[in-house]
Amino acid sequence: MSAERRTLESTLSRSNLTGPGDKYEYRPTAVMPDVKVVKIGGQSILDRGRAALFPILDEIVEARRTYGVQVVLLTGGGTRARHIYSIASELEVPTGVVATLGKYIPMQNARMLQMLLAKHGGLYILPDDFEKLPLYMQMGCIPIMSGMPPFGYWEKREEGSRIPPHRTDAGVFLSAEFLGSRRAIYIKDEDGLYTDDPKKNPAATHIPRITAKELQDKGLPDLVVERVVVEYVQRSQWCKELQILNGLVPGQVLAALRGEDVGTIITG
Amino acid sequence: MSDLVSGDGRTHIQSRLMRESLQDRRVLSKTVSERDLQIFPDVSLVSIGGQSIFDRGKDAILPLVDELVAIKRDLDEKIVIGVGGGTRVRHTISIAVDLGLPVGGMAQLVGAMEELNAILLNTLLAPHGSMPMQRDHFWDLPLYFDAGITPIAISVPPYHFWEPPPDEGHLPMHGSDFGLFQLAEVLGMKQVIYVKDEDGLYDKDPKRHPDAKLIPRITLPELLASFPEENILDQELFHAWSSATNLRRIVIVNGLVRGQLTAALRGEDVGTVITKPEAS
């Protein structure tokens, strides 16, 4: 065999990149650490319409205008996502196809928010526009995108489910992690974590702060945020906290955007 | 007709998942069934290695292109081709690690290196009927096959800036081996054939250990039970495969030996054949 591999010398040139074991020094650089990555829940907020959404948007605009907080908004899906997931599951389509279907509804929701926030600099962006965030931030815009990460057909199947494990909560966390932002903020319709689903069990009590590990160890059948996020926050580089708050309570969104500990903080 | 349901401040559409938490395992389990719809069960995916084939240049690439042309002419097999990026990917990541770029940044960068090999391959195969396929234009595949055009797919999965934090270390986990596996899995393909520069999978890296033994045939559970420390394929691929439902067969062949790829496409046991038994 006369043809030799022609290799560029580098730290990893002899690595097969197929697993751990490589030795290298890594001193991470934060991309845009001041940006707050904020999710507007689908089922919890957007499906409630004007009554829930408008006061939240007012607080976001105030945070941006009055306090100069840099915000990127990401949207959830909600009941229309559940509807298509339900039909797709009946048809036994693979998880990667379900994840692709799941992209469309958060996209609609992001476009709705853009129409509402246009007069305040609301800008609908796609994953490919991520590198233009510095410009949008400098111009005082509020970029809005779908919370769904772009995995689509490449979303892995998870044991015991056909629903994609990375949905809009994951997209929010992973965006914050890439940008080097310390906290991912989730605006929902509950004050964060409870010992049980407060919509179904009135005896459930609120948990203001908990570690991701403690939460995992409880082995709850249900969670307020996607499971992968609780897993990732424990080994992330930058995003070490998840804040889940109740957007239906006046003042909570503004407080969270100004860095206050409202709702529940899950720490990595 | 769908019914809209309100009364709790939200407007729902009637469905089995209405009002449910999609984090609830009890809810999620209702979405599973034993099978997946298999979209292209008669298609094989052929993955051509970056380091193992392309980095060797003309002497390795041209004979393999000849073999692909002969396969197209002589075999009645539908194939999709994907390529790896090789040493330029390692160089990119080495620089990115030194700069401290986030893992998502690395994942965003590497795809370009694979694409160079895809363009090179297409340049050579185009006169015989090939075309680069856009990212997720899978629904064009019947058209490609009807027209006798071999699609060359993008191999790096679009995790990009959203690459999850790796289990260990700081490098992206979802490379081209995984990307092509996942493509075959989601489309319910017949098999994936990885064309490398070794006769298959060994118990250790044969380039470093002359006493390494070839594994001609193994099942996925057997492989996971005694996973070789140095593996010719991404580890993540095997993790993903174990929770997948569609793909049953992965073959690793030597692209430097004429005829191995052809034999694998004929369904013969060459190189290393890894099979996943039906759910037990």
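Chain A is about 30% helix and 15% strand.
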